[in-house]
């Protein structure tokens, strides 16, 4: 059982730095060590108020309500429904566009059909044929006279769009950084990178400074399109590939062969299984009749997870590219894409392929302490941070999506199968957490994915079980490590390189703490299984050593409620997981990774926190563009981010440590106005914060937080 005394533990090693090399002051217990702004001697000597579970212990001087009222709030049921937030409900983009018949039609992107964000496009569309060219040198417009977009740049600048923004001093952040702007004339800072030149014949021409910034118009337009300027986005899959996928023109030979074999094998196994029930002597029948799969899995690149590699969780909507880039900058060593659905990937759908993009900072190797535990064959220089996650409900989708991903994505650490998503839409289809109750199917998925993924390792993310009264993770972990008893003898292990366990069931909501003692039990089990798997390896090594990942080691990560370096190292040292995956903690305080790296609490000032908001805005524009669409796409995801970021209670205001992720603060005032503003639960304040960097939200812009955050949320 894991120690609960997180604060009293001696200082842990920060990222593999031996204790002896750390600052002496770090040996103090965290509570003593921390210097908190505003914590006067007097305040620290007062008799502390009793700690109430679920309520952040804000110092009295910051509370905005009388103590009696605070007590009332303390009793209130504060429910933050993060299960809803976890859902695959990428916000819907509504983009008005002119159709060929001249009528305006709505184009929908993303998955969410419940939340609308209004429209945010220019009043009049500028044709692509002139969007990046000098005024007098338009490209050929393939629609000719039928094109109803504007071709007159002056008219567009005057009437077709909003006036330039004045944020960032009116200077285009992309142009400032790259000397070109991928949004061309549509950029909402275009005045900072355009010029009017006078020709000898007296005519004046509008030109973009930095030249024609888009090489091939039509490629990768819209959010995510960055033209020919390298803004550090990788894994951009050409439109032609998506098109071919949508027309079923991409041959997936490996998958086809494997699936053909699999269907025969399933038949065989079924017969064996039913016979075995009545006849003990037939129990070896499966291995006797078993036919080898058409090919063996290729040798995999080895992965590594350790105490120096804190992991950012896959986070639908929240875990977008700009956010991950921020986290990597703050010390995240491993990142995951948002969950993509297998079938839309196979159908070449743009929204799901867009989720597979990464920032170049995610393609660098994670930290690795060579003097730590030896990992056979691990080559850190070939490793990278970014992995993708998919959901699938049947083996053929999982297998084919895996083959497609490993073929078309050049930057891929691993492919993770989601076996934990609790959301109805996913669960009822038989994917996500439904797989926890279909272990045989899940095993076949992992085997198949491993068979077709070439060098890319396959991993799984699971929960403790579906229902609160039945934890199934232990059985499943055994199966993922070794395979079912029948299959392991003939097929070897399924080849799962790592398992992440979120210490909750599907049924459980986020209000109850993650069960780290169960995670610790599973970690002990994995350790045993790894030893067993090595024995198994000896027996099958000659025939099929590729089935075993990492030379026989399946990594095990714990996940749930990690909110500081203290939690992080406590779980590594006491639950004995290889690493800890961090979800909400990273959205609420992205500098949790910096805390882990430095091994200390960081009391970030409001202005420092605002720099993270600014970075998000900049990274958003770099990923999605600085035109009307890109800016408001950025705004939407910034607001999603702020819906969690605003939950941070500055530790300098707390009477006790450690802070707990599930604690909610009573109403309080920050140490300055900005700190108060950043803590606002009113989404209109979040819009105001977005406007500091992205300018005024357009008139049609709407934002609904994904979940009702709590009972004392301000009305909009
Ligand atoms: C907003 C949100 C989105 C999530 N999206 C995913 C997802 O796409 N795939 C997944 O496996 N888990 C997803 N999760 C679950 C997290 O990865 C993680 O397992 C869970 O939040 C528990 O970790 P935490 O307590 O550190 O937040 C999501 C959770 C949240 C709050």
UniProtKB/TrEMBL annotation:
A zinc finger (C3H1-type) spans 121-154. Residues 1-12, 20-38 have a biased composition (Basic and acidic residues). Its cofactor is FMN. One of its GO terms (cellular component) is nucleus. Residues 1-55, 81-117 are annotated as: Disordered. Its main location: cytoplasm. GO terms for molecular function: flavin adenine dinucleotide binding; RNA binding; tRNA-dihydrouridine47 synthase activity; zinc ion binding. Catalyzes the synthesis of dihydrouridine, a modified base found in the D-loop of most tRNAs. Specifically modifies U47 in cytoplasmic tRNAs. Catalyzes the synthesis of dihydrouridine in some mRNAs, thereby affecting their translation. This is tRNA-dihydrouridine(47) synthase [NAD(P)(+)]. It comes from Trichocladium antarcticum. The lineage of its organism: Eukaryota, Fungi, Dikarya, Ascomycota, Pezizomycotina.
